[in-house]
């Protein structure tokens, strides 16, 4: 992995900052090209045309709030960031953060770019707060080969692949929390990344709400999905259909998926606890005919799913199955879940004592 990992440094927390105000009509990229570390670039309310490239450590880009400060396509700033995964070579991402650390992006909307709304590669200490990614063509927020990353109180919708994706973050130490993801192939996609916490999000109106996947890609880094936590999420109404042969189709690079709530494929030591998964129904073919899915990816270059834990989840009102377990259940832990129909039958029966709907054990998250 080529990223700079680790925790946010004490210097980044304590050094005095300089603030640079920017108004609509002024070039944000011109400011970013000259700022020193520990600078807050404060964007007034309004619309700003042109993408941004960030390589200076300790920089914060702070808007007046989502929908009030809006970044849209315009002049194209050159960037050193590698080509975006599953995208044509000439796409432009709204904000590209590359090979740097301790960058914060807060309080703005990124809309209508041909690549990702926010693309982070080989970074540590990146914070996305109150950021909206709206109708960016390929990805909403794509974070790759990075560590110590936080996505909080964000929204992302209407992208071809995921609202937010963690890709090849081998030691992510990452969190996505209190956010809303809709209208994409996947709401949250943990792709060959470990140490990701997915907490208190709302994932709705996608083909799959939350997907954790270990598989191999030709020419890509080795991967794996280990030691992740998926807790207290509302995952409902995921009915879109993704996958297919058309290059512009939703989720075109993958197999057909529809009506999936939470899927953990080829994962190890993943805990899924206290989630509410309901009203997920396929509108097209799907390789995962269930709302809560645990399966192996060993047959297509991944690994078996082992040593995973499912507790205190409420999984009801989904079609065709509420839960589908396609791997050896003896290597997993299922306790205190409320599940309607399951395949195999009876796997979740007899383990609901003491459960109160909508509540999980205190102190889990």
From TrEMBL:
Entry keyword Repeat: yes
Xref: SMART domains: PbH1
Keyword Repeat: yes
Keywords: Repeat
Segments of this protein annotated with the region Disordered: 1-25
Domain (Right handed beta helix): residue spans on this chain: 93-275
Protein name: Right handed beta helix domain-containing protein
Species lineage: Bacteria, Bacillati, Actinomycetota, Actinomycetes, Pseudonocardiales
């Amino acid at each position: 992995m080529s990223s700079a990992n680790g925790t946010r440094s004490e210097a980044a927390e304590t050094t005095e900052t300089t603030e640079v105000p920017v108004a609509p009509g002024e070039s944000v990229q011109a400011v970013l090209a000259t700022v020193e570390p520990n600078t807050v670039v404060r964007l007034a309310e309004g619309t700003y045309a042109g993408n941004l490239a960030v390589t200076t450590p300790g920089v914060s880009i702070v808007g007046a709030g989502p929908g009030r400060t809006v970044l849209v396509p315009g002049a194209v700033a050159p960037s050193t960031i590698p080509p975006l995964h599953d995208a044509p070579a000439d796409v432009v991402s709204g904000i590209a953060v590359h090979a740097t650390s301790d960058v914060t992006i807060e309080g703005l909307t990124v809309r209508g770019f041909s690549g990702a709304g926010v693309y982070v590669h080989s970074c540590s200490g990146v914070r996305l707060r109150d950021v909206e990614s709206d109708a960016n063509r390929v990805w909403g927020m794509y974070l790759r080969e990075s560590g110590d990353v936080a996505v909080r109180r964000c929204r992302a919708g209407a992208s071809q692949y995921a609202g937010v994706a963690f890709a090849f973050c081998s030691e992510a130490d990452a969190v996505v929390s209190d956010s809303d993801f809709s209208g994409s192939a996947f709401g949250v996609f943990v792709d060959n990344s470990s140490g990701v916490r997915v907490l208190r999000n709302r994932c709705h109106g996608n083909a799959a709400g939350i997907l954790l996947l270990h598989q191999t890609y030709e020419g890509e880094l080795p991967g794996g999905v280990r030691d992740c936590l998926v807790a207290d999420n509302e995952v409902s109404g995921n009915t879109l259909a993704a996958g297919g042969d058309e290059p512009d189709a939703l989720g075109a690079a993958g197999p057909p998926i529809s009506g999936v709530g939470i899927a953990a494929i080829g994962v190890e030591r993943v805990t899924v606890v206290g989630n509410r998964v309901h009203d997920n129904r396929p509108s097209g073919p799907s390789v995962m005919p269930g709302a809560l899915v645990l399966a192996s990816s060993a047959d297509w270059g991944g690994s078996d799913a082992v040593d995973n834990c499912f507790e205190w989840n409420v999984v009801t009102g989904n079609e065709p199955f509420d839960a589908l377990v396609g791997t050896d259940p003896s290597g997993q832990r299922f306790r205190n879940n409320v599940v309607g129909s399951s395949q195999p039958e009876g796997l979740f029966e007899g383990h609901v004592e003491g459960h109160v709907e909508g509540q999980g054990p205190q102190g889990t998250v």
